[in-house]
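Hi R.,

Here are the chain sequences for the assembly we discussed:
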Amino acid sequence: MFSLPTNLKKIALFLERLPGIGQKTANRLAFFFLRLPDEDLENFAENIKNLKKKTKLCKKCFNLTENDFCQICEDQNRDQSLITVIESVIDLLSFETGNIYNGLYHVLHGKIDPLNHVGPYDLKINELLERLKKDKNIKEIILATSPDMEGEATAMYIKSQILDLKNKNLISKNIKITRLAYGLPIGANLEYADYMTLKKALDGRDDF
Amino acid sequence: MFSLPTNLKKIALFLERLPGIGQKTANRLAFFFLRLPDEDLENFAENIKNLKKKTKLCKKCFNLTENDFCQICEDQNRDQSLITVIESVIDLLSFETGNIYNGLYHVLHGKIDPLNHVGPYDLKINELLERLKKDKNIKEIILATSPDMEGEATAMYIKSQILDLKNKNLISKNIKITRLAYGLPIGANLEYADYMTLKKALDGRDDF
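And here is the predicted structure of the full complex:
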């Protein structure tokens, strides 16, 4: 059987490991690389090599950064009293693209997922609790983990840990703990909404 | 607005140029790179750098190769009398994965597509005609361009050029020109077949 040239094949095999990319797509992408200018490939290769050397986690919120602290934590114009707890930096990008939020973040880097052997200590939860103990500006924690079983469990766990700190008088009893609203997504068709979403939308209904 | 670390951003922007990859997927893939071992990234970067240096086109059939001639053209066990004309090396892979074909190939590297400024001279059509003139073993040309307007036009054009060579007695009049069969794909549901495919399947019906 015919096999691709070694370099091309290795690239295709590498791409196949990426999420959402199967064998056919990996081949197609590798072939596309062949058509790109030498310079672009050279630059891409350099960026890949330096990626992990130059990318670090923010010491405060665990967002990605090239310095000790990330752009968001360094920004004094942001509301320092508000922390949104998210699972990943991708979630942070979703918040940031819309310019809908002006507080700080805390990136957990995952969610509690026993089936995949991810426990609370694999996430940046302790770091969040330490942050709450130290930073006396914080007035509200928005739990923005995903609306699935693992995200829900993670939010519940974090809430219990924060309540524990409150009971031990390690943080102010006035810190609010909130969770993102559930309901119909904007632009959705009622016909296609699952009953759990509909129930949440009903429960959360508001004056109009 | 928050922006990603430079290296990560450059990688995401590069990936966004690949076919079928939008901004969100590009970000997701770039983030995935962060989680891979250093060594794998290093190797991938090296392969990208060397890709174009080490990958050439076969001097006979324009398949990809690391040498002057490709693995298939070098293989003397293959039927030297049969050439399948295809648009791309990806199509060649489709034939080769099933082990359904034992002849040679000729890769056009595209199809005639006036709207995208691709004419017959941008493809390896002249090289095919020269090959036919030189190689006296060839008995059949299978035109396997895609079953769309451009693929059809390309097949028609190549056929007319080969007939021209026959008329000028530059190649044997016995060389057969064939085209892949049209019809229902295996496993398809009749319900979802478009009427053109159904018509072709009807026209090409056979004793059972």
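Chain B is about 45% helix and 10% strand. Chain B touches chain A through 56 residues (CB under 8 Å).

Let me know if anything looks off.

Best,
T.
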